[in-house]
Design brief:
The protein has about 140 residues and is of the alpha/beta class. It is about 35% helix and about 15% strand. The chain has a single domain (about 1-135), classed as Rossmann fold (3-Layer(aba) Sandwich), CATH 3.40.50.720. A five-stranded parallel sheet has the order 3-2-1-4-5.
Length: about 140
C-alpha cells in the first residue's frame, strides 16, 4: 500500500519510519529542504531512541523516501496522512498555518480522496472554521 506522510517533525518522522518498517511504501514530504536531506541520509531531526536505525532501514529498503514536493508526494497514493505537531499558544489556540499551507499545496491532487488528518496538538474546536479544500477557500 502506498502512503504519503506530510509534515516531518516528531509525529511525521516517527510515523513514516514505522509505516515503512511495517512494509508500507512511504513517500514523506516537508518543505524544509535541510530536514529532508538529513532524513534521506537516515538521520532524524530529533532524538528518539532507535529512530535513526529505523530511518536507515526504511531508506535502505527503498520503502521510505523523502521529498520537498508536497503535491508530488500525494499523487498516486491511496492514503495521505497530514502529521503535524501543531503548536498552541498560551490560550491553547492551535496555530493551523502549517496545516492550511500543506492542504493548499496538495488540494488539486486530492480530488476524490480526502486525507486522514492527524495533528498532534489541535484542540477539538480547531476545525470549526475550516472549509473543505474543494470549496475553493
Amino acid at each position: 500500500m502506498k502512503v504519503a506522510v506530510i509534515g516531518l517533525w516528531h509525529q511525521g518522522v516517527v510515523g513514516a519510519a514505522c509505516l515503512a518498517d511495517l512494509g508500507y511504501d512511504v513517500l514523506a514530504a516537508d518543505t524544509d529542504r535541510e530536514r529532508v536531506d538529513r532524513l534521506t541520509e537516515g538521520k532524524a531531526p530529533l532524538y528518539e531512541p532507535g529512530l535513526d536505525e529505523l530511518l536507515r532501514r526504511g531508506v535502505d529498503s527503498r520503502r521510505l523516501q523523502f521529498t520537498t514536493d508536497l503535491s508530488a508526494a500525494v499523487r498516486g497514493r491511496s492514503n495521505i496522512l497530514l502529521m503535524f505537531d501543531t503548536p498552541v499558544d498560551d490560550n491553547d489556540d492551535s496555530d493551523l498555518g502549517e496545516i492550511r499551507a500543506a492542504v493548499s499545496a496538495i488540494a488539486r491532487d486530492l480530488r476524490g480522496k480526502p486525507p486522514s488528518v492527524s495533528p498532534a496538538a489541535c484542540g477539538a474546536a480547531a476545525g470549526r472554521s475550516e472549509k473543505p479544500a474543494s470549496s475553493g477557500q
